[in-house]
Design goal:
Ferritin, 74% helix, binds fe (ii) ion, 3-demethoxyubiquinol 3-hydroxylase
Length: 220
């Protein structure tokens, strides 16, 4: 069954079934090859050959973005596993589905850049799933608050990467531009669905955790 349909059916399952479906999502995200539903926005752009330093830098940035998408999937699936309200759970699973496109596009670009995803993806997935499940246990307003904060932070960091990418890397640029628009929409939708603002110090802790992730994932 395609990942998206399986995520959809997650709504009707028992808690144990949900946990097992979450585990399956983990394996597919970390070890599988997710398939995008939308065409890769980088493909219409020319694949300009960069010098070695430029290629390595672009690959480091795209590896960070790939890890970000692994974390987003894990966070949302973790939250959905414990969400009480079916509408919130459906929204979380829908957000996770849309991140699958981003995950697949980043993986494609990493391969084009002769590079690879982070070797620590199982660790990133496990940590984010745990954070998502803990947030979800606090209630559905918190769940949506986490979505808003995550998406806003990702949006800001995509802006930094758009500045930082080698100018000739048009394919990565097109992918990140589309991702940035999607993340802004995810945040708006979660806000409209009743997200609460996360209290101090949670946004700062999330930002620090993502700085650690970015520093490590650039290389490993
Ligand atoms: Fe994303
Ligand atoms: Fe998103």
């Amino acid at each position: 069954m395609p990942q998206n349909r399986r995520m959809e059916t997650l709504r009707h399952l028992t808690p144990l079934d949900r946990l097992l479906a979450g585990a399956q999502n983990a394996l597919e995200t970390v070890l599988g090859r997710p398939v995008a539903e939308r065409p890769n926005p980088g493909q219409p752009q020319p694949d300009v050959v960069m010098d070695e330093a430029g290629r390595r830098h672009a690959a480091g940035l795209m590896r960070i973005n790939h890890v970000g998408e692994v974390c987003a999937q894990a966070l949302y699936v973790g939250q959905a596993t414990v969400a009480r309200d079916p509408a919130t759970r459906a929204q979380l699973l829908h957000a996770a589905q849309e991140e699958t496109d981003h995950l697949a596009w980043c993986a494609d670009r990493l391969a084009e850049l002769d590079s690879r995803p982070s070797l620590l993806n199982p660790f990133w997935y496990g940590g984010s799933f745990a954070i998502g499940a803990l947030a979800g246990l606090r209630g559905d307003g918190w769940n949506l608050g986490f979505v808003v904060e995550t998406e806003r932070q990702v949006e800001a960091h995509l802006d930094e990467h758009l500045e930082d990418l080698p100018a000739e890397d048009l394919r990565s640029r097109a992918i990140l531009t589309q991702m940035k628009m999607d993340e802004a929409r995810h945040a708006d939708q979660a806000e409209a669905a009743g997200a609460r603002t996360l209290p101090f110090p949670i946004p700062g802790v999330m930002s620090m955790a993502s700085k650690v992730m970015k520093t490590v994932a650039y290389r490993i």
